[in-house]
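Take our chain:
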Amino acid sequence: MTSPQDATPGIDIDQALARVGGNRALLHAVLGTFHESYQGLNERLHRLAEADDWESLRVLCHTLKGSSANVGAMRLSHSAGEVESQIKKGYLPVPAVLLHECLAAWDELSPTVAKLLASTEQQETYCVTATELVLRLAKLLTLIDTDLAAADSEFLALRQAQVPEKFQSDFSLFIKQFDAFDMPGAKVSLNRMLGRTSDE
């Protein structure tokens, strides 16, 4: 008998669906954003390791750990967490075997996600009201300072949403800033959408 994991190597679809409350349209949006956000991951990992840029590698693996868990990709989440842990403990350089496992997990997962996205019919639009958006943006603003992995997961779930027109310009700018890891700029945009200055 074929299990869901056998049919979708690298990802537990049941777990991923559970994380979004069984909303397949939202899962499709989250998977699409996740896959787009981590294109070129192999090159980024190699480049940061070769440059001994351990802090940037730690941040990348920290967000990757949370984002992967959010889509049910536990092998990748675990391997990214192992790399992050080595750096936090000061065990440098990171053993090549850990980097290779992280790369192998991504290589297993990436075609699975691409296949899922290609085989999924166009999904219904995921819309948020102004009230819901403000509540989620306020939560995201707090998470950026306290838990970047959780912030990344919330961002992935929110970025494909259709937001009210008055937020669209700032929301588009915020997405670009968050994607570029420009957290100071992203916080300014969040505060602007929340109707207060970044100094408050």
The mean pLDDT is 84. The chain has eleven helices and no strands.
